[in-house]
Design brief:
alpha/beta, 337 residues, single chain, 15 helices, 10 strands
């Protein structure tokens, strides 16, 4: 049993609940954040066909859409993701990869090369964006130092869940979390998520049009661009939606379905006594989606009773042999020319 579960009454439970006052942990509530977190990758031929059928005012904005020539590009994304996990997951391959990347990219990966360098980089972010006046500054510093001392990823996952400005900075500094996570995927395997999770989203009508254009098309995928908090509890995501707060926007509930365990969807809530809650807020049932997780849009429903749109997304798993599948896809593309 967790501290939240054994709390004697609701007043005590409030101590374990994320404070209100504008937090958008489980709901993207502006156009800028939406573009940072979600990108629709679509076949340019299908997109042009759709656009010819619609008025210009209904056309999804180009800033939301990454047009590609064929499905080989999407298969390439899956292949690159799989190769990246291998290169950073093996200690020998990781050392070679860091050396090559730092040489070719002018030391771009130097802050993530080992626990000490990650600690120093994150400490700089904490000092810059959280600052000493914040009530969670000391806790954030302690978690970073614990990561460097124990060489375990769990303290960084808890750091991510704190209600601090550092969470928003992840839109720009996601590699500071992503690279250490990939290097330690093996330790997180019991937390790979299978099931359904939820997140709120507010958007303009043109943005919703982008999702409709991708619906039920295997050549179109939604790509997560940065870290994305979702909840296994639908009511948690709905509580962040603020339906009715702004009549000029469309409120949507995104439903992420994972029919198979997903190594880029990490269960932060408690699994067992051996794998306790990693989030600082136990009631949220958080499932953390990592950058470059891919989904197909299964369907879009208008729920007049709930006053929001429901967008169903299904996880696109990697091929068992991704490089072989990519070569096969490229060969097929060449033959069809």
């Amino acid at each position: 049993m967790t501290a939240f579960e054994v709390a004697a009454n609701d007043e005590i439970r409030q101590l374990f609940i994320r404070p209100g006052g504008g937090s958008n942990r489980f709901c993207s509530d502006n156009n800028c954040n939406n573009q940072k977190q979600f990108l629709i990758v679509t076949n340019s031929n299908e997109q042009d066909s759709d656009n010819n059928r619609d008025d210009d005012e209904d056309t999804p904005p180009r800033k939301w859409i990454d047009s590609v020539t064929d499905e080989g590009y999407i298969q390439g994304l899956l292949t690159l993701n799989a190769i990246g996990k291998y290169l950073f997951g093996s200690s020998l391959a990781r050392s070679i990869t860091f050396a090559m990347c730092n040489h070719l990219l002018h030391d771009q990966f130097l802050p993530y090369e080992n626990e000490a360098s990650v600690r120093d980089f994150l400490q700089h972010l904490i000092d810059t964006h959280v600052t000493r006046n914040h009530p969670h500054y000391d806790k954030a510093c302690a978690l970073v130092n614990k990561f460097a001392r124990t060489k375990r990823i769990e303290p960084l996952l808890r750091l991510y869940t704190l209600e601090t400005p550092l969470y928003h900075q992840l839109h720009y500094e996601s590699d500071a979390w992503l690279v250490p996570l990939i290097c330690r995927f093996a330790n997180l395997k019991p937390r790979f998520f299978q099931g359904t999770s939820y997140r709120g989203l507010t958007m303009k009508s043109q943005e919703l049009r982008a999702y409709r254009s991708a619906c039920r098309k295997k050549s179109c995928v939604i790509q997560i661009n940065t870290f994305c908090s979702t909840s296994a509890d639908r009511h948690v995501a709905e509580s962040f939606l603020n339906v009715g707060s702004d009549s000029d926007v469309i409120h949507a509930l995104m439903i992420f379905e994972f029919p198979l365990p997903c190594d880029t969807a990490i269960q932060l809530y408690a699994i067992s006594d051996k794998y306790p809650c990693l989030s600082d807020f136990e009631d949220e049932k958080e499932v953390l989606l990592l950058p470059r997780t891919l989904f197909h849009v299964k369907r879009i429903d208008n729920d007049d009773r709930q006053h929001y749109v429901t967008i169903w997304l299904e996880y696109v798993p990697p091929e068992q042999y991704p490089l072989r599948a990519y070569i096969r896809c490229i060969s097929r593309s060449i033959r069809n020319r």
